[in-house]
Write a structure and sequence with these properties.
There is one protein chain. This protein is α/β, with parallel strands linked by helices and about 300 residues long. Helices cover about 40% and strands about 25% of the residues. It has ten helices and eleven strands. The chain has helices at about 5-15, 20-25, 30-45, 60-85, 100-115, 170-180, 215-225, 235-240, 270-285, 285-290, and strands spanning about 50, 55-60, 90-100, 120-125, 140-145, 155-170, 185-190, 210-215, 230-235, 245, 255-265. Helix 1 (about 5-15) crosses helix 3 (about 30-45), helix 1 (about 5-15) crosses helix 4 (about 60-85) and helix 2 packs across helix 3.
């Protein structure tokens, strides 16, 4: 009888093209992957892969096994989600994925309230902007910023939340110094290789220096607080930071719409239903903050379409 775990390792190598990639994906060592592949080949009496300088390539036998392996994987996930879907107790593990900004600057107090209300639910927060595979149970609920609803996979179920707007921010002290005539360069602060928008060079306050690139969002915020220049941030981040102020003459482009996404039978479990309903209500309460309408201060403008 074929061991399903061996098939999982086979699929990981087929998808990653190497034993190293498969080991990383599965969280095991190189030797374990090789052992599992050898066990599968022994069970089937055929070689699954051809080892090349560029990686592992499926043999003819491996190609035949691949289609059946996909079917086994789909059946395994279906069985797991159906059993999971029948679990109506407010306890157990709940995996939630959301972008780091949303977790640290908006929803953590709400997540804390939910944890206090439901002490028997084990909550695992995955802070990433990458799309988690809900079908494969990498997460049970995903909170995502969606620019176009048509891009959502058809197999996902979603609760639509409020729209999210962004603004352009700089240090309050740096803006005061600029108003006083200090000529220090104003850099456009970006994450990685994101470019500088044309209007950043032409607005009422425009960039005059070379870009300042940061590796992540938290470093981006600190760079702005330190007066290095100006940067684009979600309004719920920039408007609540006492060290930052909106740059005069800039608009508030819509960044996207927040969605709570679930998949298949998992959405029917008590803990998923409790969580999505709770967070949906909290997001609705945060709608003014997300739209940049919760504060009134100098250099604030009403949201308008992006340029």
């Amino acid at each position: 009888m074929i061991d399903w775990d061996d098939v999982r390792y086979f699929l990981a190598v087929a998808r990653g093209g190497s034993v190293r990639a498969a080991a990383k994906r599965l969280g095991v060592n190189h030797a374990t992957v090789l052992r599992r592949i050898a066990q599968l080949e022994e069970s089937l009496g055929a070689q699954m892969f051809e080892k090349l300088p560029s990686g592992y390539r499926l043999t003819a036998a491996g190609e035949e096994v691949l289609d059946l392996a996909h079917q086994m994987e789909a059946s395994s996930h279906l069985l797991e989600t159906r059993v999971f879907g029948r679990d109506q107790s407010a306890r157990g593990l709940l995996r939630v994925t959301l972008p780091p900004f949303l977790a640290t600057h908006l929803l953590m107090p709400d997540l804390a309230d939910f944890a206090r209300l439901h002490p028997d639910i084990e909550i695992e927060i995955l802070t990433t902007g990458e799309v988690a595979n809900l079908t494969n149970r990498e997460a049970d609920v995903a909170v995502r910023i969606v620019a176009d609803r048509k891009t959502l996979p058809l197999n996902l179920h979603g609760l639509k939340g409020p729209p999210l707007f962004s603004g352009v921010y700089m240090s309050r002290d740096r803006l005061a110094a600029l108003s006083a005539g200090k000529p220090d360069p104003i850099r456009w602060i970006v994450i990685d290789n994101h470019g500088i928008p044309d209007w950043a060079r032409e607005a009422e306050v425009h960039t005059t220096g070379a870009p300042f690139r940061t590796p992540d969002a938290e470093t981006q915020i600190i760079a702005a607080q330190q007066g290095i220049g100006m940067t684009k941030l979600p309004c719920f981040v920039g408007d609540t930071d006492p060290l930052l102020v909106r740059v005069p003459g800039t608009n508030l482009p819509m960044h996207g719409t927040l969605w709570l996404l679930t998949q298949g039978e998992t959405r029917k479990t008590m803990r998923v239903r409790l969580f999505t309903e709770f967070v949906s209500r909290r997001l609705a309460a945060h709608a003014p903050l997300l739209a940049g309408l919760s504060v009134s201060r100098e250099a604030t403008v009403q949201p308008s379409p992006a340029r």
